[in-house]
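The pair is quoted verbatim underneath.

:::
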Amino acid sequence: MSGLTQVSLFLQVAVQMGTPILFGTLGGILCEKSGNINLGVEGMMLMGAVFGFMTALHTGNPFLTIAVAGLAGAFGALIYAVITVTLRGNHTVTGLALTIFGTGLSGTLGKPLAGLALPNSILRAFSAYNVPGLSKIPVLGEMFFQQSVYVQIAPVLAVLLYIYLTRTYAGLSTRAVGENPGAADAAGVNVTLVKYLNIVAGGFLCGMGGAYLSIVFVPRWQENITAGIGWIAVALVIFSTWNPAKAIFGAYFFGALRGVGFKLQNAQLNLFGFELRVSAQLLDMIPYLMTIVALVLIVQGKRRENQPPAALGNPYFREER
């Protein structure tokens, strides 16, 4: 196997592993741009994973599978929105509670699903395929155009989300609410509605990301199938400086780090005549160590465009504006 082929295959795996991270990151960006910190990404992804798998198993309909998975994540986000927006609860505590809730719910509902195989209609719908013409492009063809349609949807959604936030009135309203909800309210923006719509839409994307793991990447049900991907997505929101376009590269970078961990498992290294076996647990730490490094580097930067929304995490009281 040539070196170029090996690189292409590695990048293909990096994109596959980065896809759920990208979905979770986009959901987090959408939520935080409206001024709400949601640490429940992991929980919403697990809810999407289990409900998506159940729908695929019982209906065999790929469109319904994605819809139900997204709605499961959106439902979790709606719970979060009611507590933080309407009841003005603490964002951090509510997000953590949502993760615990999603983890417990997916574990309970997923117990009878272990070992069950998905219908062929689902496997065919989400299997990798070659896009005519584009799949022959060196490296890039293997990365994006010899993949499942689920993988190809993710960067398209990231670009659309970037356009939404930077080129539309609705996106401008979202950014205004995240920066200064009082000023946005005075300008006629319905702050509560904007927050609800963006939080729930972000939950829908997180649910889709979770379903990718259970119906495309594995595809089997495994307890705690996200394995911490939601937390990487939370950090990647900051790493990408709340920019959906940057999130594409960040997600695939962390996907590559996870790919390195899988590739080097059980590998033996010869060092000064001694054979060393790399610990699988140590390799699993690589993405999280890089997450910490990335966050430190971002925090050190002082450029305004790299800073979080000014009102992020602050409950809005209309009577106080």
Q: What stands out?
A: The mean pLDDT is 87. The first helix runs from residue 3 to 33. The chain is about 70% helix and 0% strand. Residues 7-306 form a domain with the ABC transporter involved in vitamin B12 uptake, BtuC fold (CATH 1.10.3470).
